Amino acid sequence: MKGLPSTSSRAPVKFRMPTAENLVPIRLDIEIDGHRFKDAFTWNPSDPDSEVVVFAKRTAKDLKLPPAFVMQIAQSIQTQLTEFRSYEGQDMYTGEKIVPIKLDLRVNHTLIKDQFLWDLNNFDSDPEDFARTFCKDLDIEDPEVGPAVAFAIREQLYEIAIQSVATARESRLSKKGRRGAEYIPAIKAGGTAVDLMKLFSNKYSVIRKRKEWDVYEPIVDLLSNEEVDALEAREERNAR
């Protein structure tokens, strides 16, 4: 794929679809009382939520679906939009990142299998335009193939964008951890016990004392009663 020039950067950007249009891939698969409805399409997350109910009612009416489908369609769309919006405002890394996109689709009587590279940092890319060119180059006349190809690309880009958010979050936490370690004062010679008391909790200090006691206690156990009495007598003489 030969896309438009990208603005490569190592700095994080705010989460959004790495395409010209920030559209959410929505997939529905609902079954009620023996009736099943499956569909896949894109949705603008900036549209008012009231449009979701309007769309659900119109879809159920056009396809003559039972009234129960209206609520299920609306809820499924809203849930997926809420998940997408939960990432908005968060950082994600996209700079200098070329990702593989795989197509393995069957649309009506057309089987599509292909793999190509996509510039995740090219926010001018257009999956729909790519799909139209793809179908034209392969002489695919079925009008449903193009939208299916574009949707498959958007779904994969969405998953990659979510992973990029997680990577940016982990990197930020890692940097905070390293900065915190830099502020730990160096332990000076002769002050080890005092510094440990400051760095660790009292509970840990008690455990540490217990370990020291366990180390020295067996030495006394190795002495006989006569040897212990002799040591005590010697200490009394020295004290005089």
Tell me the strand order in the biggest sheet.
1-4
**Please, how many helices?**
7
Give the number of DSSP strands. 6
Whole-number mean pLDDT: 78
β-strand percent reads 15-25%
How many strands, which pairing sense, and closed or not: the largest β-sheet?
2 strands, antiparallel
Radius of gyration: 33 Å
Helix content: 40-55%
Ranges where pLDDT stays below 50 over 5 or more residues in a row are 1-9, 186-223
Structural class: alpha+beta
Organism: Jatropha curcas (Barbados nut)
Keywords: Nucleus, Transcription, Transcription regulation
GO biological process, one term: chromatin remodeling
Family: Belongs to the SNF5 family.
Topology record:
Layout: E1 13-14, E2 24-32, E3 35-43, H1 50-62, H2 68-85, E4 91-92, E5 98-107, E6 110-119, H3 127-137, H4 145-182, H5 192-199, H6 202-221, H7 225-239
Antiparallel strand pairs: 1-4, 2-3, 5-6
Helix pairs in contact: 1-2, 3-4
Explained architecture:
The protein is an alpha+beta fold. The protein has 2 domains: 76 residues, no CATH class; 118 residues, no CATH class. The N terminus is likely disordered. It is found in: Nucleus. InterPro entries: SNF5 (IPR006939). Its main location: nucleus. One of its GO terms (cellular component) is nuclear chromosome.
Features of this protein?
2 domains; two-stranded antiparallel ribbon; 18% strand; two-stranded antiparallel sheet; 51% helix; disordered N terminus; extended; 6 strands; alpha+beta; 240 residues
